[in-house]
Amino acid sequence: MITKMIDYQDGDTQLEGYLAYNEASAPLPAVLVAHDWSGRREFACKAAERVAAMGYAGFALDMYGKGIYGRDGDTEGNAALMNPYASDRVLLRRRINAALSAVRIFSQVDAARIAAMGYCFGGMCVLELARSGANVAGVISIHGILAPGDAANEKISAKVLCLHGHDDPMVPPDQVLAFENEMTDAGVDWQIHVYGGTKHAFTNPAANNPDFGTVYKEIAEKRAYQSVANFLGELF
What we know:
By secondary structure, the protein is of the alpha/beta class. 35% of the residues lie in helices and 26% in strands. The strands form two sheets. The chain has an eight-stranded mixed sheet with strand order 1-2-4-3-5-6-7-8, with helices on both faces. α4 (121-131) links the parallel β5 and β6 (138-142). The protein is globular, with a radius of gyration of 16 Å.
């Protein structure tokens, strides 16, 4: 597996992504990986490597800026990093579309075959990528925030998969139903897989705050990644 750090830009903001892939004779389908609210740290980079092990190019993108990171367990600090984007979906869409534009020109990537997946805040990001009308084959939200923001939706062409814990306090059932109605009204090919007895951040072993609602759950993680593999296989 080959891994490398990649600098790219959104306007005047310098960003740093992490590319992982296995050498191939032809350009590979690519999967953008959007990080959780703590930034493009080891968890997102390992997810890009997991994608590369499936036979794709994985690109852990950067929503915050080069060298800007939060910390595990720092809810106030991580929220301060995330909130400017969560409250301004136009800014969020521009930032994640900058990653899409960067990936399209990589020599290792087939620009016509790109998907995106994201965790928690990153789930929100990839859903906004789809809502922006971006030309991607599909997006996967993994314990992501489903509620839309202040930006009007464009025509959604991407297929959508959401992997959700039923007991996630940040995404209650009424938010899930509203999202289902939003996607149905938009004519989207969508799926939601809901895991019982499962809270927020269930794929992250560092999630260890039951009072906050973030709890790792191994069986839900395994089921989720099987669904990721199936979905990407269908797309590519």
